[in-house]
Design goal:
two-stranded parallel sheet, 38% helix, globular
Amino acid sequence: MNFRRTELLREIMTQNGDAAKRVFITEGGWNDHPRWTKAVHPAERIQYTLRAFELCRAWDWLDACALWAFRYPAPTQTYLDYFSFVTPAFDPKPLYYEVQKYATAK
């Protein structure tokens, strides 16, 4: 799935009389694991994340967008480690800094 699928799901809600209901995105995001076949490149992850935030700002029916995951308490040694914004030791990844810049510029 892609992030813009949210718009299609919103259309279904509207067509079925649920236009007044608010939406929460609870686990969005991209993975940049170098060996996972479904991953994106780190620069794409940054680009997609910032674009997703812009889309969220435009959707007046959206109350919250939470991207997965800020941090895991310990390395999982799997592709899941590449969804996080910081390492288990709280070392920021490049995505963290770009989102920080985005958030402080708005």
